[in-house]
Amino acid sequence: MHRTRPTLESVALHAGVSRATVSRVVNGSTRVGEDAREAVQRAIRELGYVPNQAARSLVTQRTDSFALVLPEEPGRVFSDDQFFPGVVRGVSQRLEEADKQLVLMMARSPASRDRIERFALARHVDGVMVASVHGADPLPASLARMGIPVVSNERLLGPVSLPYVGVDNTGGAAAAVRHLVRSGRTRIATVAGPQDMVAGIDRLAGYRAALDEARLPAAVAVGDFTQESGVAATRELLREEPGFDAVFAASDLMAVGVLRALRQAGRRVPDDVAVVGFDDIETARYTDPPLTTVRQPIAHIGRRLAHQLLRLASGEPIEPSLVLPTELVLRESA
């Protein structure tokens, strides 16, 4: 026999309250007494009532969906760079705990940014997290001007200020270089990250600050956080500054490239050249030799991003800037 789907009215009758009270409980209103709330929730369980999400969205103006926007090529996001999967894992775990849906979007071209703006303006999501922003990307500020809650990983370059969750890039890089100085290295080069990203800029600043403390000269080549750029930058250093005895690479993937280029050049690690990376991706434990690196809490960054956005979208107070600590992890490469 076909069973009629429970309605708000049947829940109200079962709980002994008004239909309006049931509606307020279902939509998360705080304007309901505790006894009435418990009666409604008990009736919902006993009747097996399932709210109509489309109708609920019309009432609450919420979709229970949040977007994570990555201004990167899909090939980069889903390559062997474990930063993005780690952030996505952390974001999705926190949203799942809150019974919310994750929408993953790429934004590497003006056309894709326009599409995301239209999608957000149509209120298909309740808020947006933006990670891996390059330069003065107009998308985060544009979304915020539309009244959409936006949280970024790392602070934004330029005059725009939005809530962000970052890590101590400067302090982490400085700790890595100080370790190399303490171990007796005197010609410390760096493969810096892209200088249109906060992580690249701040890690280079930390490198320079630690060298200035030690009154040692700098030798800089710039990569783009990929393994291939680490190889190319190391070859540049071997041509321009062949006497270096250590390298701080601003990402583990670039450090993997550094190790490969040094091996091809006949330089032994760590005997001839010590190498330190940044991130502590899983690969760092399995390089030859295992990589000394600066650990950043990648999955936790994602969790805090999602947590901050959930609070922001609900009108709750948040910290405008949250900087998570890093930790130097010592292995055989340095």
UniProtKB/TrEMBL annotation:
It comes from the Bacteria. GO terms for molecular function: DNA-binding transcription factor activity; transcription cis-regulatory region binding. Keywords: DNA-binding, Transcription, Transcription regulation. It holds the Pfam family Peripla_BP_3. Residues 6-60 form the HTH lacI-type domain. The keyword Transcription regulation applies. InterPro entries: HTH_LacI (IPR000843), LacI/GalR-like_sensor (IPR046335), Lambda_DNA-bd_dom_sf (IPR010982), Peripla_BP_I (IPR028082). The keyword DNA-binding applies. CDD domains: HTH_LacI, PBP1_LacI_sugar_binding-like. PANTHER family: HTH-TYPE TRANSCRIPTIONAL REGULATOR GALS, LACI-RELATED TRANSCRIPTIONAL REPRESSOR. This is Periplasmic binding protein/LacI transcriptional regulator. It comes from Streptomyces bingchenggensis (strain BCW-1). The lineage of its organism: Bacteria, Bacillati, Actinomycetota, Actinomycetes, Kitasatosporales.
